Amino acid sequence: QVRLIESGGGLVQTGGSLRLSCAVSGSTFSGFAMGWFRQALGKDREFVAAIRWSEGSTYYADSVKGRFTISKNHAENTVYLQMNSLKPEDTALYSCAAKKTPGAAYDSWGQGTQVTVSS
């Protein structure tokens, strides 16, 4: 497991933007992929986006395609989630996660950062 530290959440108006960061602390990430998940109050956690660490393929939930962009910076050992055109339904606790191999579950999780979109 690796230690993941998220930052960048906050309060934004509908249509605004935020960029979340997820830094791998204490070691250089050498796993398979990192992803972003979110959990709104009273709802189950849901997948948002993921990126393969070595070759950079990206994957998105339908609800965020065209609005969110996941990216990585190997030198900074960090994954980013650029969120544009935010909607009130994007309000949630956003967490990043990492997995070691293609078939594995995400087994390292950060504490999360709150994103609140006001209408």
Descriptive labels:
119 residues, 0% helix
Describe it.
- The protein is an all-beta fold.
- Helices cover 0% and strands 52% of the residues.
- The protein contains no helices and eleven strands.
- The chain has strands at residues 3-7, 10-13, 18-25, 33-39, 46-52, 58-60, 68-73, 78-83, 92-99, 108-109, 113-118.
- The strands form two sheets. Strands 2, 4, 5, 6, 9, 10 and 11 form a seven-stranded mixed beta sheet that branches.
- Strand 5 (46-52) and strand 6 (58-60) form a beta hairpin.
- The protein starts with a strand and ends with a strand.
- The mean pLDDT is 95.
Offer a concise description of the structure.
The chain is 0% helix and 52% strand.
